[in-house]
Amino acid sequence: MIVLGIESSCDDTGVALVENGQTILGGARASQEKVHAQYGGIVPEVACRMHYETLLPLVQKVCAASGKTLADVDAIAVTNQPGLVGSLYVGLSAAKALAWALQKPLVTVDHIEAHIYAAHLADPDLDYPHVSVVVSGGHTDIFLSTGPTEHALITRTLDDAAGECFDKVAALLGIGYPGGPAVQATSLGGNREAVAYPRGDAGPEGLQISFSGLKTAVLNDLRKRGFVVEAAKNAGRLITARAPETPVPASETRTLSVRLPLADIAASFQEAAVDILVRATLAATRKARCRSVVLCGGVAANKRLREVMAAACKAQKNTHFMAAPLNLCTDNAEMIAGLGFHKLVTGQISGLDADVLPNKDEKRQKAGTA
Ligand code: KG4
Ligand code: ZN
Q1: What's the CATH architecture for 2-115+328-366?
Q2: Domain boundaries, the chain
Q3: Of 346, 13, 360, 358, whose CA–CA distance to 369 is shortest?
Q4: Residue 305 C-alpha to ligand 2 middle, in angstroms?
Q5: pLDDT single digits (tens) 24-43
Q6: Ligand 2 centroid distance, CA of 250 (Å)
Q7: Each residue of 186-200: pLDDT tens digit?
Q8: Quick one: which atom of ligand 1 is closest to the CA of 297?
């Protein structure tokens, strides 16, 4: 059975064809990164319009590239939660229209569950239960997963998501958007112990996660080094460090003095963020009495996080560790089609009245599952 997957919950448009929930026949992504980078963050209306322009041409492209037509498709799977409301509506509307026109089942998929499923897509032998660590731009959630759609929350961030923290710190340092890859690249060769950024209070069970203190610590560190931090003129949200004596060019908001030890700051920040995530993950495995960990979501692409998490799991009772493959960490439609297949064969089909659920805490039952 071939499932057409559609992903448009945030700023990436994704389309994929996956056979029997396992074999990727084709897939493509249209990234909006460059457009949103001008604003220092995602502008929801811009995201929505770009999905609207891109989605159906991308469906045509993926079908053509994989030698399939829409007649070969057995079901349409689409992300309907959580995410940006307008962006979700673009994907769901297109999926409904395709399902209706082709007279094929519609399957709505939870984006977070799909991120976790990305690991199963890569390794069909991966077994349940496992502790799932979902780290992305919008989420830092740790679950005990007992099935593809059965995830009990163990802990989640009290404030910023991990990816959001990488993005904000990268904006502070003026090194680009999205921040995760920029921090990773900047940290190369840097001293991870140069600055002892705080890891925050882990709480009595070690499960507490917070990233806002870390972000503030980087900001205070920049101030201490004599850098002023100014609100960008063009966005209002982007803040950039700049040496006080540096003249401010009219249109430029990203000038950085060479005196700022960027590599050290990036490496030290990254190490603190990694430590926070690893500490909470290990605590979660102890609490759930589970010796298997799956790392997924955009931040799971971080090389240092994968490395430290793998070593920490091994050291804790030889806990099995698996990270989603790099190409399936950030948002993609392969994971949507993969989980869509599972829901299809277990009868979790949606009606044409399915709606979007933008907030992660809205009741998932409302998702239009017939
Ligand atoms: O899963 P994703 O593509 O979208 C959401 O569902 O949010 O995650 C995007 C996030 C961004 O915050 C980005 O900065 C972060 O993942 N990210 C990384 C890396 N690659 C992407 N963070 C740290 N290191 C990376 N290599
Ligand atoms: Zn995501």
Answers
A1: 2-Layer Sandwich (3.30)
A2: 2-115+328-366
A3: 346
A4: 17
A5: 999 999 999 899 888 877 89
A6: 36
A7: 999 999 999 999 999
A8: 1
